[in-house]
């Protein structure tokens, strides 16, 4: 028990150091954001994609992001589409950051279209499901079969976004709690026929970026704890397990000497 508390304390201290380093970067435009995210975008795309598709590799992700193609690929072409879509969605986020686009249902639909275009299977297509559109049929996920009814999705998503925008006291902790809640509730609503996890992770990170907070890579090797943390919200509406998990993932993402040196620069 003592070791667990100590480990959590170290994680919290490192979180504060990472947050200070990010704030000291004083990001004012998209060029400075791209510089700060150097290497991060590929890591996020790889881990977020592999969470849903085990055929995604880091090599292929890097090749598509750097060269817009992969040589000698022999797998399912859907994998290539998913990686290419992740690149397009990343560019959409950067453009939205530059334009100071608000997090709205319309923007989330844009993200969903970019992430899922050319990947919907014939079965979904035949029943009217489309990239960039809310689900038309009832899909549930997980042990506890969560997921809003199709007719309730738009209202529940709009209410969720209103909730996170209402908090006028933007302390660091409030921002992080709001981000965790946004992600948990988004996955609980399950607004799309496919791509909910990929969209939800990107939506959470766009919210963080808009609030001058570093984004998070949720590492695919940590998926078991990730799903358990989401399940805690589904069952008991407890956000604390997901917050602890996300802070640990944030530390795992940004605990690099080259980045952390910014925490010790006077501004």
Task: Characterise the protein shown here.
With 267 residues, this protein is mostly helical. The protein has one domain: Fic-like fold (Orthogonal Bundle), CATH 1.10.3290.10. It has 13 helices and no strands. It has helices at residues 2-24, 30-36, 40-52, 58-67, 77-99, 105-116, 122-126, 153-166, 172-189, 196-210, 223-236, 240-254, 257-260. It is globular and about 55 Å long. Mean pLDDT is 92; it is low at 1-6. Residues 103-248 form the Fido domain.
Briefly characterize the structure.
The protein is 65% helix and 0% strand. It is mainly alpha-helical and 267 residues long.
CATH superfamily: Fido-like domain
* DSSP summary: helix tally: 13
Work out the helicity level: 55-70%
Largest sheet: none
Radius of gyration: 18 Å
Number of strands: 0
Give the overall pLDDT as a whole number. Answer: 92
Number of domain units: 1
CATH class: Mainly Alpha
Q: Specify the structural class.
A: mainly alpha
CATH arch. level architecture: Orthogonal Bundle
Low-confidence stretches: 1-6
- First-residue to last-residue Cα separation: 39 Å
CATH fold group = Fic-like fold
β content, as a range?
under 5%
The rough form would be described as globular
N to C succession of SSEs: HHHHHHHHHHHHH
Pfam family, one: Fic
Active site: 190
Binding site for ATP: 194-201, 226-227
Domain Fido: 103-248
